[in-house]
Write a structure and sequence with these properties.
Blueprint (H helix, E strand, L loop, with lengths): L1 E10 L2 E11 L3 E6 L6 H9 L6 E6 L2 E2 L4 H6 L1 E4 L11 H11 L8 H7 L15 H14 L4 E5 L7 H16 L3 E5 L9 E5 L4
């Protein structure tokens, strides 16, 4: 479903990714590794269409994402380094807003999602008062509240404790088993049998 052909990405005027090609199908996860500064985040931003590639092509269902931006973004969920909350809003309000932005899962409720992520007791607090781990879990809760085929996650395990890490692995595993696609960067060793690994360290 996702095909990357001869992709090159730069940050500023510095080449980071050169002539990269791979594809990803339903039920597959790609784990991108590499040292800090190797270009992992830059690559994800290109895959999301947030940054333009220097060369090459990113295709979704056989079409260049530059020509189908709206439909591509409607099927993609992105969790970056920043959690993307409105700090004055509660966890409930943030998820209601996120749900309204996309096609919501018919069998997933805001309350059920908050309970699953261990956030229900803090649901009425302004998000800015949540711990770093709670804020990270709330960002990941958007993956459950929106119906998106492709999940792209930049260091999703940051600030998560052992139990939350296991929970996230289970959520990602279920998404893959249900025919979803996922791409993530992490220094964390994944306990997911469906994962493929791409290391982008130069040389």
């Amino acid at each position: 479903m996702l095909e990357i052909t001869n992709l090159s990405c730069v940050r500023g005027d510095k080449p980071l990714i050169e002539d990269l090609s791979f594809d990803l199908s339903e039920g597959q996860l790609l784990h991108i590794t590499g040292r800090n500064g190797a270009g992992k985040t830059t690559l994800l931003r290109c895959l999301c269409g947030l940054s333009s590639a220097a060369a090459g092509q990113i295709s979704w269902l056989g079409q260049n994402i530059e020509t189908i931006r709206d439909s591509y973004h409607a099927q993609m969920a992105y969790v970056g380094h920043l959690n993307g909350h409105q700090g004055e809003l509660t966890a409930v309000e943030n998820l209601v807003f996120a749900r309204a932005l996309g096609a919501a899962q018919t069998d997933t409720t805001v309350t059920g999602t908050l309970k699953k992520l261990g956030l229900y007791e803090s649901r009425l607090l302004p998000t800015k008062f949540l711990s770093q781990g709670q804020q990270r879990r709330l960002a990941l809760a958007r993956l459950l509240i929106q119906k998106r085929k492709l999940w792209i996650m930049d260091e999703p395990f940051v600030a998560l404790d052992t139990d939350s890490t296991a929970l996230l692995e289970g959520i990602v595993s279920d998404h893959i088993k249900n025919g979803g696609l996922a791409i993530l960067t992490s220094h964390h060793a994944l306990n997911l049998t469906q994962s493929r690994q791409l290391n982008i360290d130069r040389g």
